[in-house]
Every structure is written in C-alpha cells, then in structure tokens.
Amino acid sequence: MKIALGPVQYYWSRVTMLQFYEAMCQAPFDIVYLGETVCSRRHELRLPDWLEVAQMMADAGKEVVLSTQVLLESGKDLKDMRKIAENGQFLVEANDMGAVNRMDGLPFVAGPFLNIYNSPVLRIVSDLGARRWVMPLEMGAAGLAELQQDRPEGMQTEVFAYGRMPLAFSARCFTARNRNIPKDDCQYVCMDHPDGLMLNTREGQPFLVLNGVQTQSALVYNLIREVDALRGQGVDVVRISPQSQHTAEVISLFHQAIQGSLATSSAFDQIMPLMPAGPCNGYWHGKPGLEYRVA
C-alpha cells in the first residue's frame, strides 16, 4: 500500500510552498498531487512554477500527478484546466467532469469530487481512461467493499486517510465575508490562515473550517488505526492532506504503520499531538462524520 501526499488545500506564500515541497522530497511517500484545487485567485504559484516543482519531485523519485481545480467559475479557469490536462508529461487528477472529458481517453486519476458511489459509475470513468479513483470522503468501509468487489481490471483505489475533509465548495468566499470584504477584492486574506479559519458554535465547540470558497471539517479525518482494514479491502493508496506544520512527521507515522514497524495504536497516540484539531473517522464506520470510533 502506497502513500500519496494530496494537494495543498490552503493559500501559502510562494516561499513557504517551495520550501515545503523541497523538504517533502525526503519524506517517505510515493505519490504527490500538485496544483491549486480550491481558488483561482490563489496564484503565488502558476502552472510553470508547478511544473518546476513537479520535475523536482519526479527527480526525487515521486510519482507526480497534476490536480485540476474543483469549481470552475470563469473562462480563465477553463483555460488553466485545459493546460493541465494537456501538459503532456505528468498524470492528471480530474476533479470535475469537464476535466475528465478534456483528457480525451488519456490515463488519469478520478478525484474524490467526481462522486463515484457505485460500480456503474466507476465502470464509466474507467472506460473514459481512469486508472485510479479516489473514494468520496463520506463513503464508508461498507460502501467501499461493494465497489471493490466489482472494481474494473487495472483500476487502483485511493482513500483519503488523513486531514481536514473538504466538505463543500461555493461561488462565495466565506473567508473574505468574515472580513466584510467582497470576493473580487478579497485581499488574499486566506493567507492569514495557513490551516483555515476555525468556525465555532455558540457553545465554543469546533464546527467547520472556512478556507476561502471551500468549507472543511473542523476535526481531522484520521484513519491510521484502520491501516490494516484498508489493506484488507485491497486499497492501493492512502492520501495524506498537507498541513502547515508536522506533515513530514505524519507521513512518517503512516509509513511505519503500513510497514508494520509501528503498531497502529501507537502510531495514533504519536500522531495526536501533531494534529491541528481532534480526530474523527465517523464516515468510515457509517456514522456521523464528526464522531471518532475505535473498531
């Protein structure tokens, strides 16, 4: 079972982003997803910069995948998506059906936002060229087991296993709205929140995280205890979503748990202090997403 480093969901400075990926070259993971998936106004790095980072990661022995934006809102967004789809060098993660159609039969990764919930849809994206699919975040172990039984030949399965879950995307920017400024003049306030802006209930309990046009879970989805169950279901890749601190340590703990050199319970105990918030795994167990269950 391989480890993938998902695309950075937050808006970090150019220097921070480049330093992050330079450091990640030495981390024990196999696949890296690169690119801006959340908001087209985030352009500290543009496509030529991402391609340079991609080459650096490829030279470090990582499989590189370029991710497309989830919510396309303008002609420029469409143009950028086409450039990624036609890059001609690296595999592409298609995060909407427009990107799938643009692949024109070339191999691609079917991202978690394509809403693949049943075998017929998985067969359709396979026929269109998908060679790996990422399970929707709210799908649980039972649903995954059903799809794995009828998985098309040659199709790999990837599961989002660690990080704040991207729950929804909107044309509105809620981080800008929090500052009472319009989206078109957002002043890039997302950069002030390297792990998103926490939204609490009136009782002071963590509820959601605002990340520009994206809404995330406040709690951190964590399947490190479920590594053996994931392997038993035939999962090929587990995805770790980057955070502003301790990403390398998180990757190392998953690596040790997968290799069997560290018990999953011990890995969980060690990962807890590294998390920006408490854990959840309810969706995996068919429960409300904010719950945490020990199998």
Describe this structure in words.
- With 295 residues, this protein is of the alpha/beta class.
- The protein has helices spanning 14-24, 47-59, 75-85, 97-103, 119-127, 141-149, 174-178, 227-232, 247-259, 264-271, and strands at 2-5, 31-34, 63-67, 91-94, 108-110, 130-134, 156-169, 197-200, 206-211, 214-222, 237-240, 279-280.
- Strands 1-2-3-4-5-6-7-11 form an eight-stranded parallel beta barrel, surrounded by four helices.
- Helix 3 links the parallel strand 3 (63-67) and strand 4 (91-94).
- Helix 9 (247-259) packs antiparallel against helix 10 (264-271).
- The longest helix has 13 residues, at 47-59.
- The model has no long low-confidence stretch (mean pLDDT 96).
The total count of strands amounts to 12
The biggest beta sheet reads:
8 strands, parallel, barrel
Can you name the CATH architecture?
A: Alpha-Beta Barrel
Q: What's the alpha carbon Rg, rounded to whole Å?
A: 18 Å
H/E topology pattern: EHEHEHEHEHEHEHEEEHEHHE
Quickly name the level 1 CATH class. Answer: Alpha Beta
